[in-house]
């Protein structure tokens, strides 16, 4: 990762932390019972964490993702809008697939689902509008990534899958991914334990699902995730003293 890229990421992180500090101070509430039971430090830390989690959401993650992809030589667009022209039979198949998955009638299997959707090659077509959180292009190959919270709800997972299948129906050469920027269950793919999206995606085996290390290293290279953690640690050493004074 280039030094310039690392500096850009540091700037984003410092801005998020400082914003959370400012909001915590501005909205500080006297909680005598909480402080007696938990300590003032824990109460302040809890308030700060909630504020930080709010600011460090979709926007900063998309921005950092784009910066890393650009560092790797990708052409990028955030919130990329595309209109796909898809056979109506394929659209109906996408709806059937997602309805069956949501109802628990079938288990997710990305390859089989794509094969079913792409089997429709005749009949009327329909134009659908899709917005992808991050679009990448390199060496003529286009990639569309749906970036979600690490514990997505059922609707978020289903909408992402519909969009991904429609993109593959429009152009089989597109790369499509469902991306979570860290794994709340642990470092390994098998550790992912938020059960809700498991109805829609095989979170442990589907190659189109990128979680944590896989997500960041796909945007960059095999060392990107480790380098990113080092950047976070470096920024933390600069901001922890200010946080401790809350």
Please write the string of helix (H) and strand (E) elements: HHHHEHHEEHEEHH
Widest β-sheet, arrangement of strands:
1-2-3-4-5
Rg measurement, Å:
21 Å
- Average of the residue pLDDT scores: 94
Spatial gap, N to C terminus: 34 Å
Give the helix proportion (percent range): 40-55%
Percent strand equals 15-25%
Number of strands: 5
Shape: globular
Provide the number of structural domains: 2
Low-confidence stretches: none
Describe the structure.
The chain has 246 residues and is of the alpha/beta class. It has 9 helices and 5 strands. It has 2 domains: 1-70 and 224-246, no CATH class; 73-219, no CATH class. The chain has helices at residues 3-26, 32-38, 40-55, 58-71, 88-102, 110-118, 154-170, 213-219, 224-244; strands at 75-87, 125-138, 141-148, 175-180, 209-211. A 5-stranded mixed β-sheet has the order 1-2-3-4-5. It starts with a helix and ends with a helix.
Mind sketching the topology for me?
Layout: H1 3-26, H2 32-38, H3 40-55, H4 58-71, E1 75-87, H5 88-102, H6 110-118, E2 125-138, E3 141-148, H7 154-170, E4 175-180, E5 209-211, H8 213-219, H9 224-244
Parallel strand pairs: 3-4, 4-5
Antiparallel strand pairs: 1-2, 2-3
Helix pairs in contact: 1-3, 1-4, 1-9, 2-3, 5-6, 5-7, 6-7, 8-9
